[in-house]
Specification:
Layout: H1 2-9, E1 17-18, E2 25-26, E3 45-48, E4 55-58, H2 68-81, E5 83-86, H3 93-101, E6 121-125, E7 149-156, E8 164-168, H4 169-174, H5 178-184, E9 188-191, H6 203-212, E10 216-219, E11 221-223, E12 230-232, E13 239-242, H7 247-259, E14 267-270, E15 277-281, E16 285-289, E17 298-305
Parallel strand pairs: 4-5
Antiparallel strand pairs: 1-2, 3-4, 5-15, 6-17, 7-15, 7-17, 8-14, 8-16, 9-10, 9-13, 11-12
């Protein structure tokens, strides 16, 4: 029996096939479609968190000026690993915003309370304000040009819990069956703030915000504008339906697509400490802030960087 098991264990699994006991496809995992991203980094060291997503950077002080050469390597690392982490940083609100400006225009969020300056939002949770970010999502996909990235820093962390997880939407797309890929090809979905932020607004404010931020149609599978990777681009909190197909079929496909983010094989997990910073590519990832710290306080500050219209 032992020999039988050993023999069976070394039989190669055909690439792209699914183990009947598994929820994910078995295939080699890659890091990026860009071969140049395999070059070593010269200005810092990295510690990968998984095969495809997440890397911790050491040797960079974000409070100091970031040279064009360092910016280029950090950006390459962001594209390759999709979310990058820094420890023991000292960023005030102005430095936080200034760092984000190196990658684009910081957004003034239409719904979340601000910190010291308009571009920095404060995400504060505690006994009187339970966590609401513990659901897989992509930031502000209800906008016409959703953010390209977000930079989050820890202000106050709980004694235990409060980790954030990120999921690689390029690998998640690759994990779809050929049948599902064919069914979503060329499809667009509607993204709307109403089912999240809209719930807490008084009627007059809700009506005004609906004029400012009408529902948007984005591709169900978007193309990353820099790496060319195909990415699942629907999420639980903002995507309402797929256009042009019956509701039951739309619901079925969205359930399949949204479930892909939940596979641990596609994820990395970050444990926050005072001074920690995370910078993620909002086009290529979804994230989930674990709410296991309630009722302890957890305070974070975030700057999002405006992106372009998905295609």
């Amino acid at each position: 029996m032992t020999a039988e098991i050993e023999d069976r264990a070394v039989v190669p699994v055909p690439q792209g096939t699914r183990n009947p006991m598994s929820a994910v496809y078995v295939r080699p995992l890659y890091r990026t479609a860009d071969d140049s991203a395999q070059k070593p980094y010269t200005m810092f060291d990295i510690t990968p968190y998984s095969r495809t997503i997440g890397a911790e950077i050491s040797g960079v002080d974000l409070s100091k000026p970031i040279s064009p050469e360092l910016h280029a390597e950090l950006h390459r690392c962001l594209l390759e690993w999709k979310v990058i982490f820094f420890r023991d940083q000292s960023l005030d609100s102005h430095a936080h915003r200034d760092m984000a400006e190196l990658w684009g225009t910081p957004e003034i969020h239409p719904f979340i309370p601000k910190a010291d300056i308009p571009e920095v939002v404060r995400l504060a949770r505690g006994p009187a304000d339970i966590p609401v970010e513990n659901v897989w999502h992509s930031d502000a996909s209800f906008e016409q040009t959703p953010p390209m990235g977000s930079i989050l820093k820890a202000v106050s962390v709980p004694t235990t819990g409060g980790d954030t997880l990120w999921s690689d939407m390029a690998v998640a797309y690759d994990g779809l069956s050929d049948e599902v890929k064919a069914r979503i090809d060329g499809k667009v979905a509607v993204h709307d703030f109403m089912q999240t932020f809209g719930r807490r607004l008084p009627p007059d404010v809700k009506a005004q915000k609906a004029l400012e931020y009408p529902p948007q149609e984005h591709p169900v599978c978007r193309i990353h504008p820099e790496t060319g990777q195909k990415l699942i681009y629907v999420n639980t909190i903002f995507t309402t339906h797929i256009v042009g197909i019956p509701k039951d079929e739309s619901d079925e496909l969205l359930k399949i697509l949204m479930h892909e983010a939940t596979h641990p094989e596609y994820q990395c997990r970050f444990h926050w400490k005072p001074g920690s910073v995370a910078f993620w590519d909002n086009r290529a990832t979804q994230h989930y802030a674990c709410g296991d710290y309630f009722p302890d306080p957890r305070v974070m500050e975030r700057v999002t960087i405006l992106g372009d219209k998905p295609f």
